[in-house]
Write a structure and sequence with these properties.
- The chain has one domain: Four Helix Bundle (Hemerythrin (Met), subunit A), CATH 1.20.120.450.
- The protein is 60% helix and 7% strand.
- By secondary structure, it is mainly alpha-helical.
- The chain has a two-stranded antiparallel sheet.
- The protein contains seven helices and two strands, in the order αααααββαα.
Length: 168
């Protein structure tokens, strides 16, 4: 099982990497961010939209946030305007970090049940497995965005967790 410290570390890493990814993507043109680059969700903009959607969907299950009104197919167009997407990303990261600071060990050791729209059935899984998936999902799709951004000629700086967060 994962620890509370792991959850807090991953929330901080997620926020810092999103700051780096968005800063690099911000230096691209709108057309470069929207160009279909052959990734799973096509473009940088669509992939970053899906990430916000995924984070919000999981946080609706974990912490009672409002769930997105669209499913996976609509996740790529959740926020059409770049400025709005950047703002919601920063807000979402702050809320995830705040949530991670309040996780209860008993909750993390429990189970979570929900109706999965993707699977079209009720699902129950250990909460710690779902939180692990939550952070892994972020890293997975952010890696896709990173590859597209670097292919477009921008740099995000270091991405290695032990070297970008302060450990004193």
């Amino acid at each position: 099982m994962i620890s509370l410290d792991h959850c807090r570390l991953m929330a901080a890493y997620n926020a810092e990497m999103n700051r780096r990814i968005y800063a690099a993507a911000d230096r691209l043109t709108e057309a470069q961010r929207r160009e279909n680059r052959g990734a799973f969700f096509g473009s940088i903009h669509a992939t970053l939209n899906h990430l916000v959607w995924g984070d919000t969907t999981w946080m609706a299950r974990f912490a009672g946030w409002d769930a997105p009104k669209v499913g996976i197919p609509g996740s790529i167009a959740l926020h059409d305007e770049w400025a709005a997407l950047k703002a919601i990303r920063a807000e979402t990261d702050a809320r995830i970090e705040a949530w991670a600071s309040t996780i209860d060990p008993a909750w993390l050791a429990g189970t979570l049940s929900w109706f999965s729209g993707a699977m079209q059935r009720d699902v129950t899984r250990p909460t710690w497995v779902l939180v692990t998936h939550f952070f892994n999902h972020q890293t997975h799709h952010r890696g896709q965005a990173h590859a597209m951004i670097t292919a477009a000629g921008e740099k995000t700086g270091d991405t290695d967790l032990p070297f970008i967060l302060p450990f004193d």
